[in-house]
Each structure stands twice: as C-alpha cells, then as structure tokens.
C-alpha cells in the first residue's frame, strides 16, 4: 500500500512552484544575466556554474548510493544550499539594479 505523507505533499508543491517560477523567467532576462554577472563580479563569476555542476553531480551520486544522510551527503547539501543562495542573490541584484531600468 502506498502512504502519502504531508512531507510528500510539501515536496510536490515546492517542485511545482519551482518549475512555474523557472518557466516564468523572461528569455531576455536570461540572455543579459551572464554578461552582467561577468561585468559585476569579474571572471570569478565564470567559476560558479562549474562549481554548481560539480556539487550537483556529487550530490546526485550520493543520493543514488543512498548515502545522503552521511557526513559527505550533509556537506553536499550545505554546499548546494550555499551556491543556490549566491545565485539567487545575484539574480535578485541583477533584477533590482539593471533589468528593471530598461
């Protein structure tokens, strides 16, 4: 028998709202953001996508191995949360400073 818990409902709602948010971003915003990030943060901004891909890959592998509750898994979750926070703050800064002016 399949049990549906409240955590499952919350996770599904968060996934749906994230997908809606991602689809609602205008394409022009996504075209101009990388150039603005390099202008604002310098060449170090180019390393963030590679670091995010590396952390995401490790997190995915740990999840498939069933070791998400291990210390390494916890570290990858924290690293992914930190990188997400940095990216969201950069997107918000771009939106508030440069994108709305045009």
TrEMBL record:
Q: Which taxonomic lineage is given here?
A: Bacteria, Pseudomonadati, Pseudomonadota, Betaproteobacteria, Burkholderiales
Q: What keywords sit in the KW lines? A: Membrane, Transmembrane, Transmembrane helix
What protein name does the entry list?
Membrane lipoprotein
Annotated transmembrane regions: 6-29, 41-60, 72-96
């Amino acid at each position: 028998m399949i049990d549906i818990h409240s955590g499952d409902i919350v996770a599904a709602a968060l996934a749906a709202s994230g997908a809606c948010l991602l689809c609602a971003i205008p394409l022009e915003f996504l075209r101009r953001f990388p150039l603005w990030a390099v202008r604002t943060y310098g060449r170090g901004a180019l390393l963030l996508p590679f670091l995010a891909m590396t952390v995401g890959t490790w997190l995915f592998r740990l999840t498939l191995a069933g070791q998400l509750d291990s210390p390494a898994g916890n570290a990858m979750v924290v690293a992914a949360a930190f990188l997400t926070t940095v990216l969201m703050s950069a997107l918000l800064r771009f939106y508030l400073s440069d994108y709305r002016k045009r």
